[in-house]
Amino acid sequence: MKFETKLIHAGQKADKQTGSVNVPVYQTSTYKQDAIGRDRGWEYSRSGNPTRKALEDCIAALEGAKYGLAFASGLAAGTAVLSLLKKGDHVVAGDDLYGGTYRLFEKVFRKWGLEISYADSKDPASFKKALRRNTRLIWAETPTNPLLSITDMAALAEIAGKAKAILAVDNTFATPYFQKPIELGAQLVVHSSTKYLGGHSDVIGGLLAVADKELYEGIKFYQNAAGAVPGPWDAWLTLRGIKTLAVRMNAHEANAFKVATFLRGHPEILKVYYPGLEEHPGHVLAARQMTGFGGMVSFELKGGRKAADSFFKKLKIFTLAESLGGVESLACYPATMTHAAIPEKERLKRGITAGLVRLSVGIENPEDLIRDLARALKA
Ligand SMILES: *Cc1c(COP(=O)(O)O)cnc(C)c1O
């Protein structure tokens, strides 16, 4: 099956009993057993639920993985990955990281004895240099948030393989439509399905795609033992969103290209970050390891915070909000919103300045979007 067909059919066969073409919402916590020790494959919905299973099978197929697992949020999925580690193990993570993942490492797992260090997301040699004897996991996010840097996944897979560490890639920004980390050597793919996979800003969720049986069994055990699972409605909504992923991603990308091209020529703007632009430092690598550049565009206003305040006030179609990946266009101010958990000095060092704006370009008419930006940028 080709990708677009998998979106609509993988894990989602017509219901055996009724023929329902959509997977039913199995809104049940428990299942009748026919005799002691004889169930029909389902016992209790924390352990397994048919609607959730359809979503899990679907993400596995989309990522080219053997196994899929669904969680109550992207961070719950990330926590499940970290459950494979123990006190004294070491993680190397890219430095341009989703703020919540950074907080999970620093404020939750460090105090339980996990060692974490950060490497330059753009430079595989920096990951290699950060390795220790006890490194068990390399964690990469590409493209990164909010600067859209690109990490060389094949190079990291080689480094991880030699170090006998697991390579996990957060594929939230690109989605399996544009990028398949397992094909490049990753063992684990992490998603916040809250974003493009769900696609309609109406559900929080997380997904893992797992290449290897042993890793799968470890995480599956944790999923049931700790219990951060999505309910059947959330699984169903996510599945419904996934069906249109290909058409949405094409529209997001086409619009993002137009928006980036408009912004790049604008006199109020210092710098535009979009991996689809030739001048982006990660452009060649992105073109090699991705099949598209996605819908996220960041830029830096010349006028800093003052210009940003005026810009956000004048927007009419782009909505000032956290999150990304929905059909509607959103604009966010990373310094005080998504990346507020990172100390200011560290933020500035990474390029998250007072003039930085991040756009999640939606699938509205691009002329309306550009008109909205043009009006808001008028000094
Ligand atoms: C949003 C996000 C997460 C966290 O996902 P939640 O569903 O909000 O828990 C992790 N990684 C990236 C790249 C994200 O954008």
Task: Explain how this protein is built.
With 379 residues, this protein is an alpha/beta fold. It folds into 2 domains: 3-242, Aspartate Aminotransferase, domain 2 (3-Layer(aba) Sandwich); 245-378, Aspartate Aminotransferase, domain 1, CATH 3.90.1150.10. The protein is 39% helix and 15% strand. The protein is built from 14 helices and 12 strands. A 7-stranded mixed sheet has the order 1-7-6-5-4-2-3, sandwiched between helices. α2 runs parallel beside α9, α3 (74-82) packs across α4 and α12 (304-314) crosses α14. It starts with a helix and ends with a helix. The model has no long low-confidence stretch (mean pLDDT 96). The structure holds pyridoxal-5'-phosphate. The site of pyridoxal-5'-phosphate has 16 residues, from α3 and α4.
Number of strands: 12
Bound small-molecule species = pyridoxal-5'-phosphate
- Report the average pLDDT across residues: 96
Biggest sheet overview: 7 strands, mixed
- Topology-level CATH name of the largest domain: Aspartate Aminotransferase, domain 2
Give the helix/strand class.
Answer: alpha/beta
Query: Between the first and last Cα atoms, what is the distance in angstroms?
Result: 51 Å
Share of helix among residues? 25-40%
Compressed to H and E, one letter per element, the order equals HHEHEHEHEHEHEEHHHEHEHEEHEH
Strand order of the largest sheet: 1-7-6-5-4-2-3
Indicate the CATH class of the largest domain.
Alpha Beta
CATH architecture classification name of the largest domain: 3-Layer(aba) Sandwich
